[in-house]
Design brief:
The longest helix is centred in the middle third of the chain and has 43 residues. Helix content is 74%, strand content 0%. It starts with a helix and ends in a 14-residue tail after the last helix. The chain is mainly α. The protein has a domain of 64 residues.
Length: 98
Amino acid sequence: MKRLLWLGIGLGVGVLVVRQVTKMAHAYTPQGIAESAQETAGGLVESVRSFVDDVRIAMAEREQEIHAAFAEGVLYDDQFAEERGYPLDGIDTQEGRR
């Protein structure tokens, strides 16, 4: 009876090992590599699409904020003006431009 039990366990483990080895071997065949690359490329394309959609939504929200500020007649604060070399008051003293 013990021998039959160990034979069954051995067969079960052997089947599992053979299935795993077959999956691993398929992963390194040209077809398996092509499938993997296709899945990766599909995921990359979806990530880029999602990023572009997020940027478009944020850009539209920011544009609405700017339009609302101009409609109210509020001078919109340019937080990066100093980094570009422009004074904060919006007047370029060297060129005399606004």
